[in-house]
Amino acid sequence: MTTEKQYMFEGAPGAIVKIAGVEYSYFGGTSYYELHKNDQVLNAAAEAQKKYGITTSSSRSSFGTNQLLLDLEKEASDFFGTEDSVYLPSGFLTDMAALNIFTKENRFDAIFIDEFSHYSNHYAATLSRKPVYKFSHLNFEELEKKITFTSHKKPLVISDGVFPLNGKIAPAANYKKIVERIDGLLWIDDAHGIGVIGKNGRGTYEHFDLNSENIYYGGTFSKAFGGFGGIIPGKKEFITAIKNGELLNGATPAPSSAIAASLTGIKVFKSNSELREKLFSNTKHLKTSLSKIGIIVDNSPIPIVAFTLNDKANMLRIKNKLMSNNILIQYLNYIGSHSEGTLRIVVFSTHTFEQIDNLIFHLNKII
Question: Which of 65, 123, 243, 259 is found 20 to 30 A from 278 (Cα to Cα)?
């Protein structure tokens, strides 16, 4: 991800941020519920760091596991309704951890990946040293044709569940039909789906009812849950293989404060259903308001919208003009963006309608 200029917040991310002493309405990032600065989350992080120190200074194969880490994995398993789960020091590592096991167990002979999948997915695919085929964004018909016209017998399909730039939801139900028909595998990186979609906020897997022996997924605590680190829920055998793999046994677990924040964040999320209700309300208000000023976006529940208006110079003008009115949106060059870049707006559960209306008012004047 590249930006024209970087700005430093003088505090935690949220609907209101401060830069150089000036307050702005912030419509970027991924702190969907502002749990990153929730008092319960912060207190748990501080207490854990005081009790356990910064890290265990040892890998999980030795003395790197403590009760806090086990509690987090148990809480995650309960939340996702799976036999077990494994916590990783970074969400970026979930794709590599899963594909490492698939590779070692010889469970696929080629990868078919959505062209706009996250960098971590592409990186993990490259590390597998298997043939990699890209298919057009969200195009399950093209995916099926590419699988059919290759000689590979054990395909692994890779996709984000929710794409971070444009907020599109992958047609995972269609992918499920494809992989089940040919006994292939589907891996979903659901960093932006978990905590947002699905009846209970379990993400894309729950949203499409993807219960299948052919489907695996992972996510992160650093978005909706206000913590840090990756999570892979699943069957005991698969999770045990990851826990015994090189990636975890060759690395120190995440800081104690991050583990405690993640554990508390998921608990706060589970006990406050109004967080999602407010997020969905704000998302609907934003998207309806954008359509009224001629910016057409989908009506999905994902709190992310992205659009391109003419060229880079014009979009930077829009972004900078909004900033002069104390409103921050993002201009990005990211995987999946237009060649000229993309404007991206994100709403949180903590934004007020007044903030959203103010954004729309100034955006309408500027464009």
Answer: 259
